[in-house]
Amino acid sequence: MTNLLSNSDARRVFLAKQGLSAPPNRALTKQGLLQLIHDLGFVQVDSIQTVERAHHQILFSRNQTYRREHLKALLEKERALFEHWTHDASILPSAFFVYWKHKFRHQEKVLVERWRKWRGEGFEAAFEETYERVLRDGAMLARDVKADGHVSGGWWNWHPNKTALEYFWHTGKLAIAGRSNFQKIYDLTERVIPAEFREPEVNREDFVDWACRSALTRLGFATHGEIAAFWNLVSPDEAKAWVSAHRDELTEVLIEPATGDRARASWAFADFFSTLDSHPDAPPRIRVLSPFDPMIRDRNRTERLFGFFYRIEVFVPEAKREYGYYVFPLLEGDRLIGRIDMKADRKKSTLDVRRLWLEPGVKPSAGRLEKLEAELERVARFAGVEKVVLLEGWRG
């Protein structure tokens, strides 16, 4: 028999799995930060700093006592975290590194042909020279090996040595030892990732089992497509086969959507309903989410669970944007209630709020606006600016 999960229960479970139900002002230790990232699975890294970089904002939105220096220490000193790719560049627990070795082997097979089409013939000309230089000289930035006369042009115009560094990072021969002004510092993997995290070798069957099991644990409930997409490590067919092979450990759940559509069949572990009450309600406060927050990464799932359509418009021409270049979703309790366009002006030390859009049916009551202003004050302090400025027409 397939059980129906109400939309409110589905949101409650998912928000708890996403670390958004814990008290946001409880002191977060460095070890607690490592556990939070482990429980989330990954934290996406992005260079845009409209208010704060994505990884910092993702962690701050879950706990306002988050300290950037703890993340830096876990990444660059203790090596308990490492940077690599899921669906995008992300920070991951080093305990997962042995599973990423399967991704490295896959990348070796596909990247050369893909990048040859992108970069052109001979793109790998500097590979051997670049690797030998890292081996000999140690950790370096891409600019340290940049050929004289090359004019950089972003990711589409990497110089040959930068291409080599990125290829070796993608395929696991190099790792990110740290960052300088957000630029990657590359070094040999064995000099960055502790030996305890590089062994033992994991066979393909155990790798697929871990990838699917750990994804479903963090999602709470999911289709086989959502299981595959979580880490972007296995194919939907592999996830589907894993579900078939582990039916005795799983239960089918019908998820009631917020959109009024037909309930969607998903999978959960067999104890799902017996542990349903263990997930707390999300705090009622309003929180600003990063556009790269893992809670909204799967835009279709976000729309089904929360009735909230969201797309980042960074790459949309300005004239065609519905909202703005970098607009932040707003979470209130277990509801996505709207979005806000704002930017930190570091010269003036202000958080400039340009525009607020509330979802249909969400009223701008005095209490709600007070909660929003309290959150904007928290974000401003975190971003290192002195005050919030509500620009003319911000309420629309």
Indicate the topology.
Elements: E1 3-5, H1 7-17, H2 30-40, E2 43-44, H3 54-62, H4 68-76, E3 81-85, E4 89-93, H5 97-119, H6 127-137, E5 140-141, H7 160-170, E6 174-180, E7 183-188, H8 189-192, H9 195-198, H10 204-219, H11 224-231, H12 236-245, E8 250-255, E9 264-269, E10 286-288, H13 299-306, E11 327-332, E12 335-345, E13 350-358, H14 366-383, E14 387-390
Parallel strand pairs: 1-8, 13-14
Antiparallel strand pairs: 2-4, 3-4, 5-7, 6-7, 8-9, 10-11, 11-12, 12-13
Helix pairs in contact: 6-7, 10-11, 11-12
Pfam families: AlkZ-like
Protein name: Winged helix-turn-helix domain-containing protein
The assigned CATH architecture of one domain is 3-Layer(aba) Sandwich
**Counting H and I runs of at least 4 residues, what is the number of helices?**
14
Helical content stands at 25-40%
Structural class: alpha+beta
Organism: Rhizobium lentis
Protein name: Winged helix-turn-helix domain-containing protein
InterPro entries: AlkZ-like (IPR009351)
Describe it for me?
InterPro entries: AlkZ-like (IPR009351). This is Winged helix-turn-helix domain-containing protein. It comes from Rhizobium lentis. By secondary structure, the protein is an alpha+beta fold. Among the domains are: 95-193, Arc Repressor Mutant, subunit A, CATH 1.10.10; 286-390, Aminopeptidase, CATH 3.40.630. The protein has 14 helices and 14 strands. The protein has helices at 7-17, 30-40, 54-62, 68-76, 97-119, 127-137, 160-170, 189-192, 195-198, 204-219, 224-231, 236-245, 299-306, 366-383; strands spanning 3-5, 43-44, 81-85, 89-93, 140-141, 174-180, 183-188, 250-255, 264-269, 286-288, 327-332, 335-345, 350-358, 387-390. The radius of gyration is 22 Å and the shape is globular. The model has no long low-confidence stretch (mean pLDDT 94).
